Amino acid sequence: MKYTIKRLLGLIPILLAITFLSFGMMRLAGSDVVEQKMFNTGQVVSEAQLQAAKAELGLDRPFIIQYGSWLNNLLHGDMGVSYVSGKNVFDSFVEKLPATLYLTVASIFLTVIISIPLGIISAVYKNKIWDYLIRFLSFIGNSLPNFFVSLVLMYILSIKLKLFPIISKEVSLQSVAMPAITLAIAMSAKYLRQVRATVLDELGKDYILGAKARGVKFSITLWKSVMRACLVTIITLLALSIGSLLGGTAIVEAIFMWDGVGKLAVDAINMRDYPIIQAYVMWMAIIYVTVNLVTDLSYRLLDPRIRLEDAAHE
Question: What angle do CA 19, 20, 23 make, to 5 degrees?
Answer without folding.
Answer: 80
